[in-house]
């Protein structure tokens, strides 16, 4: 006798819940189901959804930060005049202007993303 024959047989399928005490009531003739008008032409079980395309904010913000820092780098490069004594180091000026430019650039990028999101606020179409 092998091990498989001596082991008790158990079912791996879950048991179903007991039937509810109230049977489902069929819809009356002539009364449409709720939402039936929106489901015309769809196969049974299909769900109609509304697609809303919204911009992702992080790429807009990061692009603004990068552009702000690049603008600060250009401003620092144009600030340097050969033969003139420098009171503040170039690194310090780049750090301050880069931080301020990055902050304002990020805010402008976020404002652009919000403006695009508001403009595209309405649904762009239906998907099945």
Q: How many beta-strand runs?
A: 2
Shape: rod-shaped
Radius of gyration: 33 Å
Instruction: Compute the average pLDDT.
Output: 76
Uncertain regions: pLDDT < 50 for 5+ in a row?
A: none
The biggest beta sheet is recorded as:
2 strands, antiparallel
Tell me the helix content.
Answer: 40-55%
Terminus-to-terminus distance: 57 Å
SSE order, as H and E? HEHHE
Tally of DSSP helical segments: 3
Beta fraction: under 5%
Q: What is the SS-derived class?
A: mainly alpha
Strand order of the main beta sheet, please?
Answer: 1-2
Question: Helix and strand layout, with pairings?
Answer:
Blueprint: H1 3-6, E1 49-51, H2 57-79, H3 90-119, E2 125-127
Antiparallel strand pairs: 1-2
Helix pairs in contact: 2-3
Describe this structure in words.
This protein is mainly alpha-helical. It has a domain at 57-81 and 88-121. It contains three helices and two strands, in the order H-E-H-H-E. The protein has helices at 3-6, 57-79, 90-119, and strands at residues 49-51, 125-127. A two-stranded antiparallel sheet has the order 1-2. Helix 2 runs antiparallel to helix 3 (90-119). The radius of gyration is 33 Å and the shape is rod-shaped.
Task: Give a concise summary.
The protein is mainly α and 128 residues long.
List descriptors.
128 residues, mainly alpha, two-stranded antiparallel ribbon, 5% strand
């Amino acid at each position: 006798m092998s091990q498989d024959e001596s082991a008790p047989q158990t079912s791996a399928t879950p048991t179903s819940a007991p039937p509810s005490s109230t049977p489902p009531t069929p819809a009356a003739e002539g009364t449409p189901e709720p939402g039936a008008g929106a489901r015309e032409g769809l196969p049974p079980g299909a769900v109609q959804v509304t697609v809303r395309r919204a911009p992702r904010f992080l790429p807009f913000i990061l692009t603004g930060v990068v552009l702000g820092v690049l603008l600060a780098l250009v401003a620092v490069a144009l600030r340097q005049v050969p033969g003139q004594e420098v009171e503040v180091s170039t690194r310090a000026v780049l750090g301050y202007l880069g931080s301020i430019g990055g902050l304002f650039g990020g805010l402008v990028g976020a404002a652009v993303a919000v403006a695009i999101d508001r403009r595209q606020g309405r649904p762009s179409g239906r998907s099945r």
